[in-house]
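Page 42, continued from yesterday. The earlier attempt failed because a stray header line got pasted into the input along with the sequence. Redoing it now with the clean sequence only.
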Amino acid sequence: MKITHLRPTPVLRRFISAYVIVDDRGGTLPHAPIQTAPMPFGALSVNFCERSRDGAGMRHPEIAFLGLQTGVRHWVSGASTLFVMVLLTPAGIARLFPRLGAQTGNALRDLADLWDRAQADRFRAAAAAILDPGMKGGPLDNWALAVLADRAPDRLPLVEALYLHGQPSAAAAALDLSLRTFERRFRRDLGITPTDLTNLERLQHSLKARQVSKGTAPGIGAHAVHDGFADQSHEIRHWRRYLGTSPGRYRTAGLSPAARSFKTADPDNAAFYL
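This time it went through. Structure tokens are written below.
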């Protein structure tokens, strides 16, 4: 299984974290159960080989959008896998899918249902082009710049205000909104609450630190693992709420092959696989 990460052009990094190519055409993980983590990212994807299936056995869409996730996702890989993902930041989701958060949070949707077939096909063509190693991320950069140019940033300040001020109440005050209005609009745009997004950011930091520290002696890197949490018990509560396990149990278990490949390809990016 080979996973390749490509960086978008700097002007897009506010909206796009990475382009990811997952290539398992050799069948390293045929029909293997896969788990992906709750993430403060969305993912646009195109499947070019056998499509994966959800827990009920239904095939995933060929061209799909995965909204922000507050729980672990379980799915099964195909016998031959090749897909391209665009990891979207919350700001990217708000810009590309304005007012669709309620339909996309914790959901995998066919992109043609959210946009239209022509737009979905343009995305597919750009994703196919980066499979040529010589192209790098250029075709997807050009596609994203063209789409963003057509999207008015009317709801982008909600996300940016939360990141800038840290607390929903402070962000709402900065935008001259009531807290209730801020939270309602935020959920409409991203499908989750501001508190959930803050918790997911915190959880991602902890999960990445745990993946990096696996195999080291207990306590190594502990100061980094607990960043963002008041204490260890605060961290454990978040793990149990969003991941259904504890940091200690996760650390003693081995990383899945998918998680190892993803971490090796780009250890600084999202902890996508568990």
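Notes: The first helix runs from residue 90 to 96.
Reminder to self: strip header lines before submitting.
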